[in-house]
Write a structure and sequence with these properties.
The protein has 3 domains: about 120 residues, 3-Layer(aba) Sandwich (Rossmann fold), CATH 3.40.50.2300; about 150 residues, Alpha-Beta Plaits (2-Layer Sandwich); about 240 residues, EAL domain (TIM Barrel), CATH 3.20.20.450. The chain is built from 21 helices and 19 strands. It is an alpha/beta fold and about 575 residues long. Strands 11-12-14-15-16-17-18-19 form an 8-stranded mixed beta barrel, surrounded by 6 helices. Strands 2-1-3-4-5 form a 5-stranded parallel sheet. Strands 7-8-6-9-10 form a 5-stranded mixed sheet. It is elongated and about 105 Å long. Helices cover about 45% and strands about 20% of the residues.
Length: about 575
């Protein structure tokens, strides 16, 4: 059942301040069809109401002569107050024309005399004042998204807050995502993509408005909705995915993340973070449209992630993050020889114990802490390379991971140059692993950055090769020195149903590009021999060694090289 509500979410909100009941009722009758109205009976109550509704209030109608606190005092308070981030216009209600100058000096913008003029005169003055203060031309360009005509996020949050103030019913926050929209853009072009977004937006607005909700375009192909609680999301889903664009009919899949019965005590933006967490659980479900709900398990996960973020600074200071090293062996000679290693991060938390990098790294990628984490690993690794060189006179290269977000840092090359210079090592001793999927996003910028790094003497390893799309359409132009084969490909090749044909094709590619091939995740002698036979140069995995802490790694290195 669609729930009907009494408050019109598009109405502006007005505060009427007057100690006389009859005057308040007259204003209610004049304004009720056009505006949402709240009331105060004296100046003190008015100040409290203004602060309470400061984000959504469009106008204050203020009587000057009242008990407890007069209108003049209210005007003076807000004329001097620095607490309000946005100015709210005041229209003074008075029978004393001599008070006009003083009221203007204190910030009033207009007057309504007593006894009241005709209703249409009052309405016209109010309308004009609100429009002047909201600067209608500016609002038209900022309130709505240009393509979809839906609310821009900031205005959406403001109207959602207004709903909370006026409705004492349970509300749902929704994130709505067109799944793999970028593929539609690539396949049919951005013109069709824009047509899809426009059609989809219209469909969402029509559908959500039936449920007395509001809609915003959050960005790209992601939308937000706020509506009274309902259990009819399957019906909503079937309506909004039916896009009337010929080229994509039957190709649209929609994912909805729902934070039901929102906790109104938390910030409006965090409610949508929770809805997005629910939506993200559907990321790998690519066949059909789906709905997911934020629940206790996701709530516990959110709390856990917040704890990790809160503990990040202390973990850095106390060096709870430990850099482990997994050896890599060159297998193309008569005997495997340790030739390099990969730096891998581990978190030994004082109360939570060992935390898997598969848990904390995605968290830090989402909130931007990954850059500082990467720099920590780079610094620690450079120190270890220097330590090995000083102790044993050995140039021993170690690879570090460069996250996707760092690839868009204009200072990346300078940062690496500073690290190697400060630690007294060579550029080619700090190997840089960049995941294959990084090359598929803003590929020209990534390639320019990688070329710049290589021109400065850094060696580039493409990590997780075979897991993305670059091997199919970009491999011939990618600037790399090493192909590091995705661990899943190695495991599948040596599974009961697998074969090494894919690996053989990769070896053909590496010969064509004249680069080195590294296989990771290798666990048995049979795998080592098979990979060596088809031309793999370097092998990393549990067959040779698990990742080792600094002390154990150094002992392993001494033993292997007879140091």
């Amino acid at each position: 059942m669609v729930r009907k509500v009494d408050v019109d979410i598009e109405k502006r909100l007005i505060l009427v301040v007057d100690d006389e009941y009859i005057n308040r009722e007259i204003m209610r009758e004049i304004l009720k069809d056009t505006y949402d109205i709240i009331f105060a009976e004296n100046g003190k109550e008015a100040i409290d109401k203004i602060y309470e509704y400061k984000d959504t209030l469009s106008l204050v109608l203020l009587d000057l002569i009242m008990p407890v606190m007069k209108g003049f005092e209210v005007l003076k308070h807000f004329n001097e107050s620095k607490k309000l981030k946005r100015k709210i216009p005041f229209i003074v209600i008075t029978s004393d024309h001599k008070s006009e100058v003083e009221s203007l000096d204190l910030g009033a913008v207009d007057f309504i005399p007593k006894p009241f003029p005709e209703a249409n005169v009052i309405s016209a003055r109010i309308k004009r004042t609100i429009e002047l203060f909201e600067d209608r031309e500016t609002i038209k360009s900022t309130e709505r998204d240009a393509l979809t005509k839906l609310y821009a996020p900031e205005y959406f949050y403001r109207y959602a807050t207004n709903l909370d103030k006026n409705l004492s019913i349970d509300m749902d926050a929704l994130i709505i995502d067109i799944h793999h929209f970028h593929i539609l853009n690539i396949r049919f072009g951005t013109e069709v993509g824009d047509e899809v977004l426009s059609s989809f937006s219209k469909k969402i607005k029509e559908t959500i408005h039936k449920y007395n909700g509001i809609v915003s375009r959050r960005g790209a192909d992601v939308f937000m909705a706020y509506l009274p609680h309902t259990d009819e999301y399957k019906e909503i889903l079937s309506e909004i995915e039916n896009i009337d664009v010929e080229e994509v009919k039957g190709r649209i899949t929609v994912k909805i993340g729902v934070y039901p019965n929102v906790d109104k005590s938390i910030d409006i933006r965090r409610r949508y973070d929770r809805a997005k967490i629910a939506c993200d659980t559907l990321r790998n479900k690519v066949v059909t449209s789906s709905v997911a709900y934020f629940n206790k398990d996701l709530y516990d996960k959110e709390l856990f992630e917040e704890q990790l973020i809160d503990d990040f600074e202390k973990a850095l200071e106390e060096k709870q993050f430990k850099v482990y090293f997994q050896p890599k062996f060159n297998v193309q000679g008569d005997k495997p020889v340790i030739s390099s290693a990969e730096a891998l991060l581990r978190w030994i938390h004082p109360t939570l114990g060992f935390i898997s990098p598969g848990i904390f790294i995605p968290v830090f990628e989402k909130n931007g802490l990954i850059q500082r984490m990467d720099h920590y690993v780079w610094d620690e690794t450079a120190k270890k390379i220097k330590e090995i060189k000083d102790k044993y006179g050995l140039s021993f290269p170690i690879s570090v991971n460069v996250s996707r977000v760092n690839m868009f840092d204009n200072d990346l090359v300078n940062d690496f140059e500073s690290i190697v210079k400060e630690n007294g090592i060579k550029n080619e001793e700090l190997l840089l692993e960049i995941t294959e999927s990084s090359y598929t996003e803003n590929s020209e910028q990534i390639i320019d950055t990688v070329n710049d790094l290589r021109n400065h003497g850094f060696k580039i390893e493409m990590d997780d090769f075979g897991s993305g799309y670059s091997s199919l359409n970009m491999i011939s132009i990618l600037p790399i020195d090493v192909l590091k084969i995705d661990m899943a490909l190695v495991r599948n090749a040596f599974s009961a149903e697998g074969n090494t044909r894919i690996l053989e094709l990769i070896m053909d590619i590496k010969k064509s590009l004249n680069v080195i091939a590294v296989a990771e995740g290798v666990e048995t002698l049979e795998q080592v021999e098979a990979l060596k036979k088809i031309g793999c140069d370097v092998i990393q995995g549990y067959y040779f060694s698990r990742p080792l802490n600094e002390k154990d790694f150094e002992e392993f290195l001494k033993k292997e090289l007879n140091l």
